[in-house]
Amino acid sequence: MKAVGVVVEYNPFHNGHLYHMEQSKIQTNADVSIAVMSGHFLQRGEPALVDKWHRTKMALLNGIDIVIELPYVFSTGNATHFSQGAIQLLDAINCDTFAFGSEQGTIQPFLSTYSLLEKNKEQYNTLIKQFVTTGVSYPQSLYMAYEKLKQKEPGEYIDLSQPNNILGYHYIEAANRLKLSIKPVTIQRIQAGYHDSIDCDSTIASATGIRKAIFEHQAIEEIAAYVPPATLLQLEDWKTKYNTFISWELLWPLLRFAILRNTPEQLTHFADMTEGIEFAIRKAAKKSDTFAEFMVNLKSKRYTWTRLQRMVTHIYTGITREQLHQFSEPTYIRLLGMTSKGQAYISENKKHFKLPLISRVASTKDPMLELDIRASDMYAQCINLASNQKINGDYNTPPIRIQV
Questions:
Q1: Is 72 marked as binding a ligand?
Q2: Given 81, 141, 204, 234, which residue has the most CB atoms within 10 angstroms?
Q3: Backbone phi, psi, residue 50, to 5°
Q4: Residue 19 in marked binding region
Q5: 225 vs 232: CA distance, rounded Å
């Protein structure tokens, strides 16, 4: 059976994701689709709208055959670390190809961009350092250095100001540098941009726009046109059980407590913290009544919004620099769910997987997995605070099985 892999968050699964998944299978002639999905905390330093189990069901009911978890150490990492972990896992579960959505829509410019940056690596790094010293943020410095290199060697390259192009480049970079056999394919993103609000004249909206509509109107009906029926059912099920969706605003009392209970020196030990920011974080937390107010008080030219959110994610989960960066690659494949076809694929290929497959965490001792479990436990605290309800934890939730 031929498998195509996709890297996802499905926060939530929407019509654009459905198009991407269907096109991925068509363009690669794959029998099975495998999603490596972030758990409860995401790459932009945010808690997921609903838990990983509801998002796994969304994926399986909408055509994905196997869902595996991207461990916390990668799901909350920068683009390089996030991509490396995801592509290694798809390769480990024997995907022939990986397919990613992009603003570019064709694969050759990605390959040309990779060749350009690899060939001029020393000059590229020098340019980045030069731009950083002028006070420009690191991501903006990367972009400016890239634009300067493009002028040196004209060709067909990708636009690295576009968020999905950036991730796509890092997927290809990871596969090439690790010398993996898995091959890249890209699918043209349609209509909605990454951060666009929803458009009443379209059935495609970004996940950001969909979440914004849910929080603004507190009604799932507002987004019914933009998500498949199975997604709507899972969102309704979550709302019925817990009466609220998850965001930093909901978590703010707990996050604020986590910040203020630590001294500035203690804060420096958490992952992704840089020298001096600990004082600004405590100061902003003291005078902010909401998370939005906190971020406005904290934001500066030196740090991107996403970088700051990743910092506070690690403060909230209590994960230190040493804990996060002791891992350079995945050590297991964590199975979250599968269809009957996915189960057949696993039975046929399990002996050839490059990493051990974990279906039940109780029988596994792994330091990376322990961080995933801690992140899940901290996510659950928010639900308990908001609705006095408990969500299923990692120890008592087996992989989801869907007969389709």
A1: no
A2: 234
A3: -135, 170
A4: yes
A5: 10
Sign of the torsion angle spanned by Cα atoms 67, 399, 315, 73 = negative
Instruction: Tell me: is residue 176 an annotated ligand-binding position.
Output: no
164 among annotated binding-site residues:
yes
Q: What pLDDT is attached to residue 103? A: 93
For residue 275, the 8-state DSSP code is: T
Is 256 annotated in some ligand binding site? no
Half-sphere exposure (CA, 13 Å, Cβ side) for 64? 32
Spatial distance between the Cα atoms of 117 and 138, rounded to a whole number of angstroms: 16
> Do residues 266 and 71 lie in contact, with contact meaning Cβ atoms separated by under 8 Å?
no
Q: Which of 157, 154, 9, 19 is nearest to 76 (CA)?
A: 9
Q: Judge whether 392 is annotated as a binding position.
A: no
| 132 assigned binding-site residue | no
Say whether 170 counts as a known binding-site residue: no
Domains of the chain are 3-105+188-194+202-245+328-402 (3.40.50.620), 248-325 (no CATH)
Q: Residue 327: CA atoms inside 13 Å, Cβ hemisphere, count? A: 25
Query: Is 16 marked within a binding site?
Result: yes
Q: What is residue 191's predicted lDDT score, i.e. its pLDDT?
A: 60
Is 400 flagged in the annotation as binding? no
> Is 215 known as a binding-site position?
no
CA dist., res. 136 & res. 157, Å (int): 23
125 in a labelled binding site: no
| 342 assigned ligand-binding residue | no
Give Cα 375 to chain centroid, integer Å: 14
Q: Is 136 annotated as a binding residue?
A: no
Identify any residues that bridge with 400 across adjacent strands, giving them in sequence order.
337
Q: Is 262 annotated as a binding residue?
A: no
pLDDT, averaged per 10 consecutive residues of the chain (404 residues), comes to 97 96 96 98 96 97 98 95 97 98 95 95 93 86 92 90 93 96 94 51 84 87 93 95 92 96 96 93 97 94 89 97 92 98 97 95 91 94 79 88 88
325 is in an annotated binding site: no
Q: What are phi and psi of 173, to 5 degrees?
A: -60, -45
Contacts 24+ apart (CB under 8 A), 273-278: 273/311, 273/314, 273/321, 277/303, 277/311
Q: Is 9 annotated as a binding residue?
A: yes
Residue 155 is labelled as binding a ligand: no
Q: What pLDDT score was predicted for residue 199?
A: 52
